[in-house]
Amino acid sequence: MQTGDRHNGRVHILLVEDDAAVAASSLDGLTALGFSVDHVGSGASALAAVASPVPPEVILLDLGLPDMDGQEVCRRIRATTDIPIIVVSARGDETDRVIALELGADDYLVKPFGMRELAARIRAVMRRTQAPATTSAPATAAVQEIGRLAIDRRAQRVHLDGEEIALTAKEFDVLAYLAEDPGAVRRRTEILEHVWEGHWYGATKTVDAHVAAIRKKLGDAAWIEAVRGVGFRLGSP
Length: 237
Ligand code: CA
Fold this sequence. Notes:
The longest helix is centred in the middle third of the chain and has 16 residues, at 115-130. The strands form 3 sheets. Strands 2-1-3-4-5 form a 5-stranded parallel beta sheet, sandwiched between helices. With 237 residues, the protein is an alpha/beta fold. It has helices spanning 20-32, 43-50, 70-80, 94-102, 115-130, 169-179, 188-196, 205-218, and strands spanning 12-16, 36-40, 58-62, 85-89, 107-110, 143-146, 149-152, 157-160, 163-165, 186-187, 224-227, 231-234. Bound molecules: calcium ion.
């Protein structure tokens, strides 16, 4: 593992990439843009880095790794942490994007890509996952209670009957967006634009995948009602 300087306030990136040439150019480009980058070339070493005492702030994850499927790596990282994951793949079709999102990735970049685009995506996922959720809900109502559900936008935490529900950053954003106006229908495209800031052109299945994950975690599909042909609204079972 090449270790970057972590002590002068630079964003700490974990680059998971087995292709030496791709890794070298990403490493050079990101370092030149002011990021601190650690590089690993396998799924196992990525999981070890995530579990280390100084975990990365953003993970760039190649899907084609020698020892494990990148999707499995993504799933395992997401099972233990909310560190933003940007999947970097040569595979650009919608199915792969949707699978990556279902597994908890925050963004998806198709190879080849430019360093500036990568840097912009990194900053965007950090903004979305670290800044307090920018919603139109009253700032004073830090914790919104909807029946048995409590949504804390400042802490980005959700409790159901007092038990914390572990949502990914994106799942939280979808739920918080629907909760801005309980009972109001939001179109899939509105949810995509609000939560993904237009990064997921046409991939409305992404929204369905996140809704399915939230319903499962909340233990009742009635929390988010599908309005046929339109979108979703927050319910209260
Ligand atoms: Ca690869």
